[in-house]
Automatic annotation (TrEMBL):
Biological classification of the source: Bacteria, Pseudomonadati, Pseudomonadota, Betaproteobacteria, Burkholderiales
Residues in ABC transporter domain copies: 4-235
Organism from which the protein derives: Pseudoduganella dura
PANTHER family: MALTODEXTRIN IMPORT ATP-BINDING PROTEIN MSMX, OSMOPROTECTIVE COMPOUNDS UPTAKE ATP-BINDING PROTEIN GGTA
A Pfam family per the record: ABC_tran
Domain of life: Bacteria
UniProt-recorded name of the protein: sn-glycerol-3-phosphate ABC transporter ATP-binding protein UgpC
Gene label: ugpC
Length: 358
């Protein structure tokens, strides 16, 4: 096991494209860190630099305290798990899992022992003599994980390993990977574009955009204290809504609404009267109960009943919000509705810099 440290790491591709800018991060020994961000934000490039599959243009990469910038992938003692399982079709599960060990010259008996142990952990023991084509997608992905585990590496690097699985299997495999991490305690870096996967799996999450880290924090910290509009909007489902407005003596006022801010927040923002802001509202801070807080007059747009809850999109002046309400609410599209919101849970972002200033 090993800590991984990136210090001002950058990546310029040959065409001059700056894919990763000044990436600095210390990943603790045994930590499970998730890189998340939209397509093209540089998360795979960063992972591939850690793996040694991509040259580092600038900065320092340390694994277990050793600078490994110029070290071959093989020497880095890490195991990578990809989206495509890349199993050898003509080999059995046992042979696939033991293949890397065989290449390394590990004695046969030791290979068998390690493969059996990994197979037990992954509940593959009864499938060891099958070939990949005789397995389901989830089982294949387990074999790919097994192949990584048997090597007993210092770290696991996983690049969207669950993307090829259907939704139900993804949830199951998420749990399997986390259990494995608890059992083995191996430092893991996991790349995904799925914020739910990031939230449920990471000890810490690194949110990236345009080759840059936006925020590094625990899942709930990210949710409760997003540093900017991007993180606020990216983490959470349904997403945070934003209403444009301006600061006006302890309130935020915009087209069709005025919301009084809690005293502490109002005091923090008192220095900027008239400042253009974006009010960040999460779906769950709304209620139809008039005692629940600040009133917001809206017009119902779309009503999506999900059983336990109903997701409602509404127009507020020229803006819009999404509310998560009780499963049995009776709201009708195109009819007016008054929502009440818990102002303590609002976020105020500066409209120009998009930084969280509330
Ligand atoms: P995705 O989720 O789509 O895989 P990502 O966040 O993992 O996205 P990367 O694959 O790291 O993104 O790519 C980051 C940026 O670098 C993208 O804009 C991509 O087009 C660019 N890029 C990737 N590989 C190369 C390359 N070999 N040459 C030039 N540009 C590249």
């Amino acid at each position: 096991m090993a800590a991984i440290s990136l210090q001002q790491v950058r990546k310029f591709y040959d065409n001059g494209f700056h894919a990763v800018r000044d990436f600095s991060l210390d990943i603790g020994d045994g930590e499970f860190v998730v890189f998340v961000g939209p397509s093209g934000c540089g998360k795979s490039t960063t992972l591939r630099m850690i793996a040694g599959l991509e040259d580092i243009s600038d900065g320092l990469l340390r694994i277990g305290g050793t600078v490994v910038n110029d070290m071959e992938p093989k020497q880095r003692d890490i195991a990578m798990v990809f989206q495509s399982y890349a199993l050898y079709p003509h080999m059995t599960v046992r042979q696939n899992m033991g293949f890397a060990l065989r290449l390394d010259g590990v004695p046969k008996a030791a290979i068998a022992e390690r493969v059996d142990e990994a197979a037990r952990m992954l509940q593959l023991d009864h499938l060891l003599e099958r070939r990949p084509k005789e397995l389901s997608g989830g089982q294949r992905q387990r074999v790919a994980l097994g192949r990584a585990i048997v090597r007993k590496p210092q770290a696991f690097l996983m690049d969207e390993p669950l993307s090829n699985l259907d939704a139900k299997l993804r949830v199951e495999m998420r749990a399997s990977i986390l259990k494995l991490h608890r059992q083995l305690g191996v430092t893991t870096v996991y790349v995904t574009h799925d914020q739910v996967e990031a939230m449920t799996m990471g000890d810490r999450i690194v949110v990236m955009k345009g080759g840059e880290i936006q925020q590094v924090a625990s899942p709930m910290e990210l949710y409760d204290r997003p540093v900017n509009v991007f993180v606020g909007g990216f983490i959470g489902s349904p997403a945070m809504s934003f209403l444009e407005g301006e600061l006006r003596g302890g309130s935020v006022a915009g087209d069709g609404y005025t919301v009084r801010l809690p005293a502490g927040m109002a005091a923090r923002l008192a220095a900027w009267p008239g400042r253009a802001v974006k009010l960040g509202v999460r779906p769950e801070i709304f209620s139809l109960d008039p005692t629940a807080g600040e009133a917001l007059n809206a017009v119902v747009d779309v009503v999506e009943p999900l059983g336990a809850e109903t997701i409602v999109s509404l127009r507020v002046g020229s803006g819009s919000v999404v509310a998560r309400l009780d499963g049995h609410v009776k709201l009708v599209p195109e009819q007016p509705a008054t929502l009440y919101l818990d102002a303590e849970r609002l976020h105020v972002f500066d409209a120009a810099s998009e930084a969280n200033i509330g």
